[in-house]
Design goal:
With 287 residues, the chain is of the alpha/beta class. It is built from 11 helices and 10 strands. Helix 3 crosses helix 4, helix 3 runs parallel beside helix 5 and helix 5 runs parallel beside helix 6.
Length: 287
């Protein structure tokens, strides 16, 4: 049973419309986020993922319903929003929507200086995050001259320098090459290891299967279902409603079980390495 102290973020019956209530991007969305968890948000385009994320740190204010952070309703005053955004940071899918300063160093400094931190302390924090995220080689470059992967690294640094309790990543690997996808995935692993609550929108079922503690499927601005990756990705009806397929490892595991090669009572593997260990333990049939 989940203690209320474990709930860091809660949405209660959220509605939000971009067209004066004619249609709703959020349509009575209710969910709870537990502290320190890795949550994959999935669903078809237009299901409400990005809109919900923008409600989480006050960029959007729901037309009705309530967002709670650490048990308290979000305060939409300037002071309240500043406090919220220090604790709940968003990395946008397109970094160009986030980066605006002349240089990388200025970009990463902006947010923490805006919180009222002293210049000396801000400088120390910025240097730490630049080194940690391997930004040093391009720290003095103009932000517009960066590659897509570098822009994503700087976008994450923007948020991380403020020591948020929640970091939200909207399709973090979108349009990245394999090298920069691996870099971003490594950063995400570090965040989780430090106890930061990570919310991620992704269409990559294989990655979500291995990475997430919990998967939330959204459809038409509502929570369709949620649970462990094993539970959600075994729900074929819900996957069909959200245009998702089962992860490859689950498809292969089910196929091997149906052929009697593996015992279906085995824990569902989260990645191919785990499945390979199962296969390696299969005893050959006697000649």
């Amino acid at each position: 049973m989940t203690s209320q102290d474990d709930i860091i973020l809660k949405a209660e019956n959220l509605y939000f419309s971009y067209d004066d209530e004619k249609t709703h991007s959020l349509n009575g969305l209710s969910l709870e986020i537990r502290r320190g968890r890795r949550i994959a948000f999935m669903g078809a385009n237009g299901s409400g993922k990005s809109t919900f994320f923008l409600c989480c740190n006050g960029v959007h204010r729901p037309s009705s319903g309530t967002v709670y952070f650490e048990g308290e309703p979000v305060d939409y005053s300037r002071k309240g929003l500043l406090a919220l955004r220090r604790n709940v940071g968003i990395v946008f899918q397109d970094p160009d929507n986030q980066l605006f300063s002349a240089s990388v160093y200025q970009e990463i400094s902006f947010g923490i200086l805006n919180l009222g931190v002293s210049p000396d302390e801000a400088a120390r924090e910025v240097e730490n995050v630049i080194e940690r995220l391997e930004i040093t080689p391009f720290r003095s470059k103009p932000t517009h001259a960066l590659s897509g992967g570098q822009k994503k690294q700087v976008s994450i640094a923007d948020i991380l320098v403020m020591h948020p309790k929640i970091i939200i990543l909207d399709e973090p690997a979108a349009a990245l090459d394999p090298k920069h996808t691996a870099i971003v995935n490594h950063i995400v692993e570090q965040l989780s290891a430090e106890g930061i609550t990570v919310l991620m929108a992704t269409h990559d079922v294989d990655y979500a299967m291995e990475w997430a503690d919990e998967v939330m499927l959204l459809k038409d601005g509502q929570l369709l279902t949620h649970g462990t990756p094993e539970e959600v990705f075994s729900d074929q009806d819900s996957l069909a409603l959200t245009n998702l397929k089962q992860p490859a490892v689950l498809q292969l595991f089910n196929s091997l079980c149906s052929r009697g090669l593996l015992d279906s009572s085995l824990p569902i593997p989260r990645n191919l390495e785990q499945l390979e260990r199962y296969i390696a333990e299969i005893q050959p049939l006697p000649l």
